Structures are given as structure tokens and as C-alpha cells.
Amino acid sequence: MKRFGVSACAALALLACVNMAQASQLVVEVTGLRSTEGSVIVEVFGSRAGFPRQPSYTQSVAIQGGMARAEFKDLGPSDYVAIAWHDENGNGKIDRRFGAESFGYSNQPVGTRADWEEARITLGLDVFLLRIDLGGFDD
């Protein structure tokens, strides 16, 4: 078994601290849900290349107290786009016919599709709280 000296352990600990200091956290709070049925899907896109079809991160979160909250930890400081939608029927896909499931992009009014530049948010080292109001009513 190979042992690390004190200096090697200190270097590894310092490296871990540096990596943690460079991590960003995105918290997405979704309100204005028109029912408590189903769940809320939050997709985060880490690059323009996969937007809007291939999210880098996805969470399905339960609705509690009329809202849903997704937390994405250890993201790098960079540009991202978030999309949240209410999967009321639990089929795992957004239903877009008239009166269907509501959705919202970061920086956009509910139900408005956007391009990367319009919806882009920039994460730094602090926690970024993004609120998306889907414009429904609270139960």
C-alpha cells in the first residue's frame, strides 16, 4: 500500500477546496402551478449546442405546498438555460396542444419559447436562485 506524505495530503486537500470553490449551484423554484397533479420537470442546458433538445441536467421534482424546487449542485461558473414544465399527466413529455401543460424558460414569460441568448443566465460562484412562475393558480 502506498502512503502519501503530509505534503501530498495537504496538496490533495487544497485541490479539493479549490474545486469546491469553483462550483456553482442553481436553485429553480417553480410556482403558479394550476394543480398538484404530476410533477415538475426542470431541464438545464449547459451549452448552446444541445439547446433545446438535449439537456445537460434534468430533474423531476414533486410538488409541495403549491410549488416545486430543483437544486443543481456542482455546476461550473458558466452560461446556462433552464426550462421548467408541469408534467401533469406524468407521461414524461411536454404536451403542447392548446390548454396543455404549462412551461417556462429562464428570463421569459410563461409559455414563451426563447432562443439561447434570450433565456441565458450566467452562474458565478454564489447560489443562483431562479424563479419561474407558470402563471396558474395555487390550490
Characterization of the model:
By secondary structure, this protein is an alpha+beta fold. It has one domain: Immunoglobulin-like. The chain is 14% helix and 35% strand. It is built from two helices and eight strands. The protein has helices at 6-21, 116-119, and strands at residues 24-31, 39-45, 57-61, 68-75, 79-87, 103-105, 121-122, 128-133. Strands 2, 3, 5, 6 and 7 form a five-stranded antiparallel β-sheet that branches. Strands 4-1-8 form a three-stranded mixed β-sheet, with no helix packed on it. The longest helix is centred in the first third of the chain and has 16 residues, at 6-21. It starts with 5 loop residues before the first helix and ends in a 6-residue tail after the last strand. 24% of the residues are buried.
